[in-house]
Specification:
Elements: H1 4-12, E1 14-25, E2 29-32, E3 39-45, E4 47-52, E5 58-61, E6 64-68, E7 74-77, E8 85-87, E9 99-102, E10 110-119, H2 124-128, E11 135-138, H3 141-155, H4 161-179, H5 189-194, H6 196-207, H7 215-221, H8 226-237, H9 241-259, H10 264-270, H11 276-287, H12 291-298
Parallel strand pairs: 1-9, 2-8
Antiparallel strand pairs: 1-10, 2-7, 3-6, 3-10, 4-5, 4-7, 6-11
Helix pairs in contact: 1-4, 3-4, 7-8, 9-12, 10-11
Length: 302
């Protein structure tokens, strides 16, 4: 069975770039500017408070895992209040040592393993918009193990390092997303998959994006009336079915064009257009440039 979540993660092409142990003692707080790239951390010991912009504060404890697909501004602090010290996330990526907050002497009261990575997809923002702003997962040992494996691989300059890191981060993303309570997720892919009827439509569009899908056809497959399916899909995913299908087709087209090994007419057929001219018109309207120019600018050699 096609898994839309795995499709999106694979198309994002994540790669690991940085990992560091973070610790603190006493009363401390740090304020990070918005970073825009995905970040994660797993709590090793102790407790702290994570306050992400426009999200409710989250109390973190040992065994917790946090993922932010687009890392907005946030504050990390000890349970005891303190005046935040402002940090630029780009300046904390140097070196592989431990980043210490608060009191310097004595053993740390909290330790976590955190990191940032990147998405190589040219339209990562479109795909990330389908994911929650913040995922907070508690008590999933597999996530802690994966984060430690990412850390170990970051510290070793072994053959195939980048490939291994990319695969580990893909696993990390999928494990975190499927461990999250989907029915309480904000509108997006997770919430759409939590609705069994909406999930039918999502899987059909991902399984055969070139098919001439209509709302009527998808509603019949989901055993719902047209109006009910349209309303449930739009509310759960955050956009109407045909808009989602168009966005997914364009994401696939960008990926195929970036590879540089397929003619535009072939790309058009793969994403559901009967001719190269029809595809070029739709692509130019959606992306802002014709597919030929996009392919030249975004070609990534194999």
């Amino acid at each position: 069975m096609v898994d839309p979540l795995a499709d999106v993660i694979a198309l994002l092409r994540p790669r690991a770039v940085f990992s560091k142990v973070i610790s603190g003692a006493g009363a401390w707080a740090v304020r990070y500017a918005a970073f825009g790239q995905p970040s994660f951390c797993t709590m090793l010991e102790g407790a702290c408070v994570l306050s992400v912009d426009q999200q409710a504060p989250a109390a973190l404890e040992a065994g917790d895992f946090v993922l932010m697909p687009a890392t907005p501004g946030f504050t990390l602090s000890s349970p005891e209040p303190a005046v935040p010290v402002f940090l630029d996330p780009a300046t904390t990526q140097d070196g592989t040592g431990e980043l210490r907050h608060g009191r310097r002497e004595g053993p740390p009261e909290v330790r976590m393993l955190g990191g940032y990575f990147a998405f190589d997809a040219p339209d990562a923002a479109l795909l990330v918009s389908l994911l929650p702003v913040l995922l907070h997962v508690r008590g999933v040992e597999r996530l802690s193990i994966l984060v430690q494996l990412v850390r170990d691989e970051c510290l070793e300059a072994r053959t195939g390092r980048e490939l291994v890191l990319g695969r580990l981060v893909e696993l990390l993303l999928i494990e975190a997303l499927r461990a999250s309570p989907q029915e309480h997720a904000p509108p997006g892919l997770l919430r759409g998959l939590a609705d069994a009827r909406v999930a039918v439509g999502l899987r059909l569009m991902h399984e055969d994006p070139a098919h001439t899908w209509t709302v009527d056809a998808l509603a019949r497959e989901a055993a719902l009336s047209r109006s009910t399916f349209f309303e449930r899909f739009s509310r759960a995913v955050g956009q109407p079915p045909m808009e989602y299908l168009l966005a997914w087709r364009m994401a696939l087209a960008k990926d195929l064009l970036g590879r540089g090994d397929m003619a535009i007419v072939e790309v058009a057929e793969r994403v559901g257009y009967s001719s190269a001219s029809t595809f070029s018109t739709a692509f130019s309207r959606f992306v802002g440039q014709p597919p030929g120019r996009y392919a030249r600018r975004h070609h990534v050699p194999a």
